[in-house]
Design goal:
The protein has helices spanning 15-27, 54-63, 73-110, 119-134, 136-147, 153-174, 182-220; strands at residues 3-10, 31-37, 42-47, 67-70. It is of the alpha+beta class. The protein is elongated. It starts with a strand and ends with a helix.
């Protein structure tokens, strides 16, 4: 006799994450089938309770660098609060990143090189918090992907922005006549964070619509 459960997963960023988690769950002894839905961040798992349990399933997800919990009424309320907090954090990150990225963009795109005293150093100072504080999640996602011997969208963003950032640092310190690209890394990270925020808002609205439809169907029944 098999049992079905639904696990809420956090930390997914792209299709690669889905593949990693799906493979991990399906490899777990006692699992009959497992599928992961990126839009609602949930995994549906059918398993043999005599061989495995929900704790082991969650543990296999955590080993891959993600987090998860079984959906219950109590967890649903906690999840709702965490989602609101997550959106607020993302919003603050966007504002903070935009405030720093805008002057970097202006200095890099509309001013001649060294037309302002210490121009490159100012851009370096403004771009650094964006690269390593706002962009920290991309490095974390990259490390998780490396541990799973795979690559994901975080890997591409981390590699691309790091190349632009560290090359620019080299130019500032050792090649004053070269061109730096601090504005490229700063603006890219800001835009990606904005995209993640809009995606999270869209997911929330989509899930709300689904829940309303389910309520209407139950009332009709």
């Amino acid at each position: 006799m098999t049992k079905k459960t639904t696990i809420k997963i956090t930390g997914m960023h792209c299709q690669s994450c889905i593949n990693v988690i799906t493979k991990a769950l399906n490899k777990e002894n006692g699992v009959v089938s497992a599928s992961v839905n990126f839009s609602n961040e949930k995994a549906s798992v059918e398993y043999d309770p005599k061989i495995t349990n929900e704790e082991k399933l969650i543990e296999s997800i955590k080993k891959k660098g993600y987090d998860g919990h079984i959906i219950s009424e109590q967890n649903y309320k906690r999840e709702k609060i965490e989602k609101i907090k997550e959106l607020k954090k993302l919003k603050l990150k966007i504002i903070f990143s935009a405030i720093l990225a805008f002057p970097v963009l202006i200095l890099g795109m509309f001013f001649m090189k060294n037309s302002i005293p210490f121009q490159d150093y100012i851009m370096w100072a403004l771009a650094t918090p964006i690269q390593f504080y706002i962009g920290k999640q991309f490095y974390q996602g990259t490390w998780a992907a490396i541990k799973n011997r795979s690559a994901n969208m975080d890997t591409l963003i981390a590699l691309g922005t790091s190349a632009a950032y560290f090359y620019s640092v080299y130019v500032v310190l050792f090649n004053s006549t070269g061109n730096q690209y601090f504005e490229a890394s700063a603006v890219l990270i800001t835009l990606v964070i904005l995209g993640k925020y809009l995606e999270a808002v869209a997911k929330g609205k989509k899930n709300k619509k689904k829940k309303k439809k389910k309520k209407k169907v139950k009332k009709k029944a």
